[in-house]
Amino acid sequence: MKLSKDQIKEIQDQQSQINKTKRVTAPKLEEILYEAIPILDHGFIRVVDYMGDDTSIVQSARVSYGKGTKKVSTDEGLIKYLMRHWHSTPFEMCEIKYHIKLPIFIARQWIRHRTANVNEYSARYSILDKEFYLPHPKHLAAQSQSNRQGRGDILDEEKAKKVLDLLKGDAEQTYNNYETMLNERYDGTVIDENSVGLARELARMNLTLNTYTQWYWKTDLLNLMNFLRLRADQHAQYEIRAYADAMLGTVKKWVPITYEAFMDYRVGGTEVSSKGKIIIQKLMKGEKVSIDNSGLSKREWNELMEAFDLKDRLI
Amino acid sequence: MKLSKDQIKEIQDQQSQINKTKRVTAPKLEEILYEAIPILDHGFIRVVDYMGDDTSIVQSARVSYGKGTKKVSTDEGLIKYLMRHWHSTPFEMCEIKYHIKLPIFIARQWIRHRTANVNEYSARYSILDKEFYLPHPKHLAAQSQSNRQGRGDILDEEKAKKVLDLLKGDAEQTYNNYETMLNERYDGTVIDENSVGLARELARMNLTLNTYTQWYWKTDLLNLMNFLRLRADQHAQYEIRAYADAMLGTVKKWVPITYEAFMDYRVGGTEVSSKGKIIIQKLMKGEKVSIDNSGLSKREWNELMEAFDLKDRLI
Amino acid sequence: MKLSKDQIKEIQDQQSQINKTKRVTAPKLEEILYEAIPILDHGFIRVVDYMGDDTSIVQSARVSYGKGTKKVSTDEGLIKYLMRHWHSTPFEMCEIKYHIKLPIFIARQWIRHRTANVNEYSARYSILDKEFYLPHPKHLAAQSQSNRQGRGDILDEEKAKKVLDLLKGDAEQTYNNYETMLNERYDGTVIDENSVGLARELARMNLTLNTYTQWYWKTDLLNLMNFLRLRADQHAQYEIRAYADAMLGTVKKWVPITYEAFMDYRVGGTEVSSKGKIIIQKLMKGEKVSIDNSGLSKREWNELMEAFDLKDRLI
Amino acid sequence: MKLSKDQIKEIQDQQSQINKTKRVTAPKLEEILYEAIPILDHGFIRVVDYMGDDTSIVQSARVSYGKGTKKVSTDEGLIKYLMRHWHSTPFEMCEIKYHIKLPIFIARQWIRHRTANVNEYSARYSILDKEFYLPHPKHLAAQSQSNRQGRGDILDEEKAKKVLDLLKGDAEQTYNNYETMLNERYDGTVIDENSVGLARELARMNLTLNTYTQWYWKTDLLNLMNFLRLRADQHAQYEIRAYADAMLGTVKKWVPITYEAFMDYRVGGTEVSSKGKIIIQKLMKGEKVSIDNSGLSKREWNELMEAFDLKDRLI
What we know:
Chain A is an alpha+beta fold. The first copy, chain A, has helices spanning 5-15, 27-32, 54-65, 75-84, 104-110, 157-182, 200-203, 221-231, 238-254, 256-267, 274-284, 298-307; strands at residues 19-21, 37-39, 43-51, 95-103, 117-120, 141-143, 151-154, 212-220, 270-272.
């Protein structure tokens, strides 16, 4: 990631602010506020605003349950209870806003999370930066044979080089032709003073999906956790997981108690179906179990055994 | 409105905070942060948290439109442009959280605005306060004869007194019986040590709809304006308008430029249908107009004439 | 539940329709379309429209995953897979609309599910029916001592009678005074021709929370399942559970494959935290376990043991 | 647009269904159900399911307003009233589902309308079709000089040819390299049996933004109208307007009364700010008006004059 002079200046200006407020603050998050955390080759995330902290969740829960929450004496106990029992609204009382730079094909996955507020850089109005995502060779994997949406083995050096050459060559060529059609370079220089450029809203269609875009993305803590649960998961595509992992780090600085509960109950936890429960119960009693008559499919059986690390029972 | 000792202490504690932050702040709003603004006889609103200010809207718009916004040189010009053209997402970048005390029948109207986060005091867990809304006599109006959902003339003194006696008597009696069923007073005193009380989740059904409840209500600026446009309108029920009017005051302190644009384009503006436009155009040309062949119903005609203050053309 | 003549006529008219359509239909659901299923003493639910069936879910999933879904050969296998892995969007492709009559205090719980479309009978415009919820004595329970929001033992006969007398007396009195203030009876009769009534939007505040209201409520299958998972749960208040249980029955008729998957993975399933997983793994290996050093609270420990029916390990 | 054999077969199968239902139907819409309406060079829209019709809106409004709606005697009068006064929830009672094929850069605009349900063809799982959007020369316009997001004059023949050559060449080359990286052709043929292909979730990043994708898109009538109001507007990008215009045609067949009201009050109507209202009022009285002291900016002034077709007053 390389920031432009303007961006460096903007971040410095933002970070040099010292304002007084009666609102609650999250001191650990304040330390990294506005800072660009590099992701992939040209991307970044920056926390640019936030509202509330762990105590805001507790405050909301206590207004709901009134004296009913007195028994749960500590804030930590209450937050863990809320997380365990899927209470949702108290976690909506915290809000965070990120500035994110990311490749378009990842932006397309990301935007499917609808309960967020977004302002994206518009290529109808302005020229996109000349930056494309080119994966590090260790992330260039073959199509998985067993999983239609997964990755298999890493490509060997020669194949990886060939892929990168194609990606790089095509991205550069299409970007150059984008400039030609616009009659304008990425830095605003006009190419031919005696000619006119194609409308930006049309020329952009020539760009490849690994071109970087950027947006402001704002959401509440509940929906952020829903996003992270899916996108920091090992089944998520590596490129979006890279963003999700960095965001998890910011959540830890922002609402540390909620973060611990989230990791324990959501990220590290597992779900067991009613049929799966019967198998687990038998195993705990030392009874014999078998997929026959379990009502489980082979795939389901294996998912259950993997969840509890029973590798010798995989079939 | 009378605050309890605990509430006064809580507000004082909240207001005495002086935290440092790198976030933007809204100084005028900070001045009234946490303060309980009285509404109706026992209600209030308090701003308890916020995120962003006018510059946050501008910042988001500028990331969207990039260099495209340079022509609109001032923040004010840009915000007015966004409001006029119904741009929505930049206004979603600001968030505000209120603590509100309000009668249940108003809460039922309010909650129909779905794009907000809410934690309400739960009468399943805790006993509701012994407070009911009793309208001031000047708000006790007869059913309108012309408008099925409106109010007509103010009741005369004698009728108003009778209504207030009924409202007060019924609210007190049902609350007393609520306590009897709970075997517990509003202040936690047990009535009969040798008896048990009905479950709170059941006993609450005996309360009248003018009983006060309270909640934390958090929303973004766009949805807040949608709420205020409907609820600060003269057609809204007086009781919810009283809340909306007070909230408009907080918006003015929070995002003054947006507030001005909102009052000009939304609150004070009007809409004209394609058929209505033809009438207006004729009037501007000094041509004769009539409801015949206009395609307008009588009701529509009158709404149009009223919108432009053409009272002599009402039919 | 007693339907008015008008309602009976309306249902008969609706049920006598025989229209031709190229849309998919759900024959079992068609059989009970428009039928009023009684709930509580005066409430009901009626399915009044729907869109899609199990095949609509499959169709959407197959467009998403393209040839990727060919391996899962059957519709049932695919729906189970989608449910197990929390895929959400395919289930949003089905939509259902209910007409529901329910007590106001239950409507207030219900409306907190925001992702639904609602049109409620408006007491600003019209007079509410003279019907109140009076619980059957077997549902009149004392406040639970262990659970702040739960019910404990059933009240004895004498206490139950006293409670019912209070509920009935107050509901009738407040309704009578509502009529008095309106100067109009529930059936539209004017009480005193020479007087005027209080505006309906005001008079309604005198009603108790067990008064019945009604609404059209429309939602997609995903959000319906989220609703049912919470409200058909044993921890939900009995009165809303009664509605949720009847709705489960309609889901079974509408999308039978999805219903089975939902019951297995969501309703009958359980979640295990990362700390809980370690305990379960030890139990399966026959190792000793104890709450000490488990990181679990007493409450959490007991919830885990109960989920797997290990009653002798409760502490 | 050219449909594949499989698609033609699927549409024929769907259209040959004749099911009986007690639900309301929209006969005009049934006639075109499932039919692929061509848009742009390779795109289409198809209505694949729907729920409700004009009477469903009326039914919901009448449950809300009860006897209050009796005065508005006709369905048409009621729907017009609801539209004029921005009533929203009755229009949410109708739902429609489309199958849409569209270029990715248009899909990226479209998806910003969040209140819809979407299942998109996934390029993580499957290979995208070899189809790219190449504009008709009459739509190849230069960047507007006055409007940062608009189009100006049509390119001359020579320039248009050059642009199309670039677009076509780049789309084909990047698609060919996509196949090379996948080691698989668009039709599933393996290129080199002894080699492995790059994971699909990676290879897709090489495609250009004019590649076609497809999705099922379901929304309610209210949100559909919000979409159409923005996207069938003359300021919308031509390519999305082409879809919106075709969808308007389906709305007309589905809910003809609502369609008329929508065209009159929303599409053909205009808004006037409080400052603009003063100017209009003066014009109607034959008074002199000028931008000075009007509080309007030049841009605002011109927008107002254009709205009322007062071209000689443009400045």
